Amino acid sequence: MIKTTFLRSFAVMALFITTLAHAQLRVEIAGVGANQIPVAIAAFGDETLAPQQVSAIIKADLLRSGFFKIIDTGGVLTENSQLNLADWKSRGADAIVVGSVLKLADGRYEVRYRLFDTVKGTQLSSLALASQPQFLRVSAHKVADDVYEKLTGIKGAFATRIAYVTKSPKEFRLEIADSDGEGTQVALRSNEPIISPSWSPDGTKVAYVSFENKKPVVYIQDLVSRKRTVAANFKGSNSAPSWAPDGNRLAVALSRDGLTQVYVVNADGTGLRRLSSSNGIDTEPQFSADGQSIFFTSDRSGGPQIYKMGANGGEARRVTFSGSYNISPRISPDGKYLAYISRREGKFQLFLLDLTNGQEQRLSDTVKDESPSFSPNGKYLMYATESGRRGTLAVVSVDGQVKQRLTTQAGDIREPTWGPFMK
After folding, report:
1. Residue 219: closest CA among 182, 192, 246
2. How distant is the alpha carbon of residue 230 from its chain centre?
3. Quick check: 1 and 35 in contact, CB under 8 A?
């Protein structure tokens, strides 16, 4: 299973090997979770001989999550080291991570790791992951995912990727990066705007809107073959693509019949069907995680609010009532939460609505937020905001306690979207 997952991950990432990397995103972390788990992470045996320091990547991933307190072991401990778990417990560690990196005869590197529970005195997990040198970071992220899941019970998302648009004075770039902002690569360059990137459910394609033909057209780009196809190029505006969970259809916003309304179209551009029919502007459609509903923004009540209708259309029900301006709906993977941007007192900020009890929470303290996107495990939200008149990316945990800022030395970053778990 692990091997299959890796092969698919590598196949998608291999697309970018020959592409020049751009300036890396820099992560700034503020805040921590309410209950941090103390974890000792040792330097891995022979990792200094590898192109990446695996233990450092694991530490950075877990630290960035806000839910772990990292305890330095002060030296190398391999998966075969004799450990006195009671001693590590007395030093404040509830768990300890040890391992090594081995260069195989075929040039690949194998990461071996073991995770121990110092409280119970037992081994919690072990993995052995072989990869080509350029994918060693993925192996490190996979180990961090395993530690995160074994200690929290929640699937880790460190090995996932993000997409976003960078604007420089002369071009727009659709870029793909690891979830920590490292390994940035360019999927598309254009002199015209690129907006609204959206990952396919299997993580092999990205849909987006490009203005390269002097009008908004929805494209789908295969991240393995680089092949691009047109999904929506009808009269008027073609915008806001969002994948159905089956990966075969897209919800889009089209103005082909007058006012912008919500439609669905097959990924190959066939089978167009209109879903909404209102006297307002209906846009920003998003499928629910189970594919049974579509959330969208409409001004049919006089100002932009978020509505919900069946996946085949029909009567829409208003979902947001607090504030006069609520846009950019995003549904959590478990379907329990709605994230959106709300204007309150002149500030555009990220809010989270618990759909089970109607409780609303403001998650950001910035003022020009846009484009929220849930992590695939539903525990974090990435969004775009501004710092010094430049677009940056920010990440906040759904409880609002952990905040990260991803910045780069040059460029204006917008339109982030968090990719899925690779299947």
Report:
1. 192
2. 24
3. no
Distance, in Å, from the CA atom of 423 to the CA atom of 410, rounded to the nearest integer, reads 34
Total count of residues recorded for the chain: 423
Instruction: Extract the tokens encoding 210.
Output: 């490009």
- How far is the CA of 366 from the CAs of 237, 340, 394, 403, in angstroms? 31, 14, 10, 11
Reported confidence tier of residue 28, pLDDT bands at 50, 70, 90: low
Confidence of residue 24 (pLDDT cuts 50, 70, 90): low
- The residue written with tokens 């598309």 in the block is 188
- CB-CB neighbours of 30 under 10 Å: 13
Using the predicted structure, report yes or no on whether residue 26 has a pLDDT greater than 70: no
- For 317, residues 6+ apart whose C-beta sits below 8 A from its C-beta are 307, 308, 309
* The 337-344 sheet, strands edge to edge: 326-331, 337-344, 347-354, 360-362
Per the CB < 8 A criterion, the answer to whether 331 and 320 are in contact is no
Amino acid 290: pLDDT: 94
- Dist. CA 95–CA 218, nearest whole Å: 48
Closest C-alpha among 328, 282, 274, 275 to residue 301: 282
In this prediction, residue 301 carries a pLDDT of 93
Residue 170, amino acid: K
CB burial class (10 A; 0-12, 13-18, 19+) of residue 25? buried
**Tens digit of each residue's pLDDT (9 = 90 or more) over 65-111:** 988 999 989 899 999 999 999 999 999 999 999 999 999 999 999 99
Q: Are 195 and 212 in contact (CB under 8 A)?
A: no
